[in-house]
Amino acid sequence: MDGWDDPRLVTLAALRRRGFTPEAIRMFIELSGISKANSTAEYPFLEYCIREDLKPKAPRMLAILDPVKLIIDNYPEGQSELLPIENNKENEALGSRQISFSRELYIEREDFYEDPPKKYFRLFPGNEVRLMNAYFVTCTGCVKDEQGRITEVHCTYDPATKGGDSADGRKVKGTIHWVDAATAFDAEVRLYENLIDEEKGVYNEDGTMNLRPDSLTVIPHAKLEQGLAEAKPGDRFQFVRSGYFSVDPKDFKPGAPVFHRIVSLKSSFNVNAAAGTAGK
Question: What is the pLDDT of residue 134?
Fold first, then answer.
């Protein structure tokens, strides 16, 4: 525990450090209403508010949390190019940027299966997918180390699909994100869960608090796109498919930002049902 500003707590100091905005907290208060009796609101209600606030505000960035290298065997060695990408599809005012692309990339380890389960549409030998805002690629195989862990995924690309669309009209079912290995930088990323496992009860039988052992996961070497290297304390972003993240203001060092997840992208939480019962 860091203290009262530990991002796993629900104090104002902790929420501020975690990246919750004043607008999101005000939205939560307004939707919860006022009750004369003691009442509680579900934590997912607060998470809904921060998602709604950040959805049009946060730039959408590329970050790989569990990286494995993807090598495009027929892409020219030593060549690189810049590809355009929107900063936020829901807010054109945030504009666009250029991201670098080359022969070697990083993708999420879960985006490749050598022997995929049914209805798996990402990379596996023989399957074609779209690299987001880039090209169609077809997986040709992988390389493993002595322990059987996959260290490289290999593929070929179709130069005629630049931008992520095919001139011949063929479709692919899977789209995966990536970062350029040549320009990506390593950063520490922290994933938080609630400190208390309330489903099992706040207290154990001996009176101690029921703390979750997995309330903090530290990823020391995530691979992030180069544009995130200049992020400042308090800056907020959406990491594609991973959630909304903020730069930790306490452990920040110039040129070495530490990112932590504010909230995941999706939830089964029903805001309409919660708003109808909040404050009662």
Answer: 97
Q: Is residue 92 part of a domain?
A: yes
User: Cα–Cα distance between 86 and 132 in angstroms, integer?
Assistant: 11
Indicate the length of the chain as a whole number.
280
Beta strands per DSSP E along 132-256: 136-144, 150-158, 175-176, 179-180, 185-192, 216-224, 236-239, 243-247
Q: Which residues pair with 105 in a beta bridge?
A: 70, 180
CATH number at residue 130: 2.40.240.10
pLDDT in tens, 74-113: 999 999 999 999 999 999 999 999 999 999 999 999 999 9
CATH number at residue 39: 2.40.240
The structure tokens listed for 251 are 């452990």
Question: Which of 9-13, 45-49, 138-142 is modeled with the greatest confidence?
Answer: 138-142
Question: In which domain, by residue range, is 160 found?
Answer: 63-180
Question: How many Å apart are CA 221 and CA 211, to the nearest integer?
Answer: 26
